[in-house]
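Quick illustration, no need to memorize.
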Amino acid sequence: MSRRALITGAGGFVGTRLARHLETQGWEVVRSGFPAVDGMLPCDFQDEIAVRALVADAGPLTHVFHLAAIAFVPDAERDPVRAMDVNLNGTIRLCSALRALAAPPRLVFISSAEIYGPPVDLPVTEAHPINPANTYAISKAAADYYCANLSRARALDIVRMRPFNHAGPGQADSYVLSSFARQIAEIEAGLREPILSTGNLEAARDFLHVDDVLRAYEAAALRGAPGDVFNVCSSRPQPIQFALNQLLAMSGATIEVRQDPARMRPSDVPESYGSVAQLTAATGWRPEIAFEKLLADLLAYWRAALATRPVK
């Protein structure tokens, strides 16, 4: 069989771009979303019957990229029961349905670097203690552990991915870099007063362009070994203040920066970044897109988006 993948969460920021990326690389792609749009197969991962139907309707597969999740941390905090049911139990339901197949495909489970919690050592490696500090991270850590257990038992071929922060065109403005870029684009367009609201600018985080992340997922799917777990990161901390300064320098507008108390996190970790050595050694993958290109792409996206649709 040629490479044929099911992508869950295919309507999301990463899932949409992953589907396009894989197709350009010669994959046949089956998309699933909830709600389902544009010919996607529908699947509510809170419904075991729906998950089994999805796996049956997808047909023969070589790979499954499992991105479907309650992925925004505040959403998980507001409804922890739903977050646990989708992120943990939904993963268990999917694994169960795949194990029932005569020829189960490889599962690429998208975990999160959030499961590490506040870093004990830097850079954060895959051996770092698991110490999740919010509901989303707890749900992902539990699902990650479950997948690891199935791998050890050789019950299913699973590769686990632990992405750090990533951004790019199409990302919601609830995330920091996209928020900055949208606010700047709105100010340039005269849609808001020239004041940019920020949270903590002192923190430093490990950011990747989403297109580098897509390549990492594909590389691990093809060249990782069963049971492998990989950080997906740049291995370089980028101060939030530096990112903001770079974006402001890309704009000709005069903009005042104001910290918004509502955006501040008192317990924010000062610095976090990961080690990508394990993924590079196993697959040859390494990040290729410069941080400045990520910022420029975000700003260009929001400028174009605001020019073609009304701001909500």
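Residues 77 and 135 are 6 Å apart (CA to CA).
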